[in-house]
Amino acid sequence: MASPTTTTPTLDEEIETLQAQVSSLKKQIRIQTSTLIASPSTRQLFTDDFSLPEDTNPFRQKLVTQSAAQEAHNQQCLYRTCAGITTFRVRDPDPNAVEGRAVLGLRIEVVSRAKFLRPYYVLLNRPYPESRTRLRLHRHTVPPCIPLSGLATRHLPPPGRRQDLSRFARALRREIVRYHHRMGVVADLRKAAGLGRKKKKSSVGDGTQQQLLVDISPADAEAKQISIDWADGRTGRLVMSDDGEIVKLVALGEHGRDREAVRELLGGAVRVDDVTRRLAMG
Amino acid sequence: MPRISIPTAARLPSALRVEPSNPAVSKILSRLSRTSLVSVALDWLDDKNLPLAAPYLHQQANPDDSQDDDGLSDDDDFNPPARSLAALRELYGDLQTRKGSKREVLDRIIEGDWRHGLSLYQLAMADLQYLYDHPTSQKWSAYRIVALKTPSPDAADNDSHHPQEVDKESLTIPRFHPSTFLKSLQATVLPDVKAHYNFDRHKTLPLLLLRIFILDSPYNTNLAVKSSSGATSFDTSRTVYIAFPDASPFIYISKPQALSGSAPAGGGGTGESNSLRTLIVEGIPKALSRPRQRFTLKSTNLSTKNLEELLDKRGSARTNSAGGGWSIYADEKVKESPLDTVLPSPPLSDREEAPITKKPSPPSREDEEEQRTRKRMRLVAKARFGDSSLVDDSKGVERVDIILEDAFPSVASTTKRKRHQSGVEEEDNHHNDDRRRRTKTGGSGRKSNFEVALGDDELHGEEEAEEAGEGKWTPNVRLTFHGSHVFAGIRQLVERGIIDGERMPGWMTGEEGVTVGAVRNGRIRGHKGAGL
């Protein structure tokens, strides 16, 4: 009875590790292929061979097209990495869509914690028959805490006023990046205050330094306000400006406003980052 | 109970006890299942809730307001009061593990442990428990909180005819603070209406629920809940739920009565209770506003019983205005880093998923041809719907009303029939019953039911011949889609080739995110894509 119970898990484990190996190897292959196929020397090889009259090898044909696709993709990646905002064209699946179903897509890259997030997309169409070049917001994946509609009415108004797509795109990207920075600031603040993710760290924090703050969290959709809870029951609200400056910090204790706590926490800080630094130092 | 009750504008206190004989109490409690009932009772006995839900204990420590039934001796009491809280907790814990009837628990609560009355807080908890048990018991309408422009209060629909109306549309995102909101909401309610408010965090969804229990009484003391007036004023229709999704400028308001009309806060309600609700609903934007920052609620034409759908279409995520096929852009799980140079597979090539979902078809004698068309239809469905509208994604709307305002297609290969009277749905042989019922009301009082075949031609209707002569005849066509998950049903019809996925208008994919809409030129009118 003991033998099957001991062997089956190992067998399962073995299968699992093997499968993991397979998938990682497959991934390796894909990465290597993509690097190889787009490397200048390989491409040189292809073009050289094309001097032969009408190549009949279907594999080579395939390789050539794949190489071209890979190169296009590499270029796109390069633009995306460097430019922050890129555009692309989409065909609206709706057969009744305006303007021959043409849709212009904006792809807005966001980097957070040293990683590229899934980009935000804004898809624009041209619904005004009287002025063909005018764009209007069609679809988007921007979260509602970004004032997209306000920006759109300012920079992409309906016929009558001038539209400015690049200003729109820049303003939108600015808002999005700001938002992510503010979220990042809150996360940094939490880290500096010894608040790991979700209670796990708190016991460790108790050991090294006595926990002064028990909770720091964004209090509104835009993450412009941060609510702070002290260990002794005081609560506070920090209002942050668009760019991370401290607009106001109010702390409430048992006997009304607690200016002492505010001074203690801020200590002349102007930006929220300064508070983070102060907290991190101890 | 205080001797004198003065009419005030204050809200009903949570600790206010309602006599257990009140029909509303048994109504609210008996809706719950046995397990929920026991768990609610245990919640009441939790230390957090105890101050507002104290049970009737044996003699000592019993509160003053239970004087009226102290004549009862314990001996002939079926449900003798417990000696201590611990004992009571144990008792309910016991009930939880043991099998038994619901009646037993109900009696225990009403006649035993809370014989001195259940506080409004307790009733609110029980009601919320019902909402958790039956998540689709309320019909919610989503409203957008929009900043109000100062001069014109009525700029309801921002169609392109009023370019000057398009305000600078402030870049402010409405901010919501529960207690402040409640305070100002209270201030807007008239003194002859009393309401009890209870906030609760939804257990699974990122929502804050506010339950407003409206009583038609000038008093905020026991007088308000006396059973003499209770029978009428304690009506479940007077309970209004408001849900505040996290980090999202929307608000969902429940519609207790199954009113089919879409007119929300604007038109005064018919019934009295309805007008009370209207009063509350009108107070909401005022309560959200602050000096020099006014907001109003704007209907977003989406109402459903499914909170998850609401959170998907009017929530805080990326999916709000990327429905249908556009949902591929909103999927956060897709990794799309520009640093990853591996050539991505095109969105429709189902490299990984094909074997899992549909492959189990045994290598039967199915024609290659048919296989291919089947696959193609599936791909078309995927192109139109993306990853949305799957049968099991639990994000379904149960009813969609569409008015077609398009002119009658002149080139339609219409088979004209006189007085076509059948009007039967025939496509609901699918388990997700998508029945389409079309009713048409002609201008001159003629009424006829007719069916529209969504076949190889676009929506072409069979209609009465005599009027079709003019070029621009526009019949008044209303479509109502009904079912447990309407758009998933349409997706299935596309997958099976009953609807031509490529010629299907976009609003049938649900990408507009509305449940009420008018279609002109094949598109939902007024609702311009992103809903701006």
TrEMBL record, chain A:
Keywords: Centromere, Chromosome, Nucleus. Pfam families: CENP-O (PF09496). It comes from the Eukaryota. InterPro entries: CENP-O. It is found in: Chromosome, Centromere; Nucleus. Belongs to the CENP-O/MCM21 family. The keyword Nucleus applies. GO terms for cellular component: Mis6-Sim4 complex; nucleus. This is Cenp-O kinetochore centromere component-domain-containing protein. The keyword rRNA processing does not apply.
Automatic annotation (TrEMBL), chain B:
Gene3D superfamilies: 3.10.20.720. Residues 65-78, 454-468 have a biased composition (Acidic residues). It comes from the Eukaryota. One of its GO terms (biological process) is CENP-A containing chromatin assembly. It holds the Pfam family CENP-N. Residues 59-80, 337-380, 412-472 are annotated as: Disordered. Transmembrane segments: none annotated. InterPro entries: Chl4/mis15/CENP-N. This is Centromere protein Chl4/mis15/CENP-N. The lineage of its organism: Eukaryota, Fungi, Dikarya, Ascomycota, Pezizomycotina.
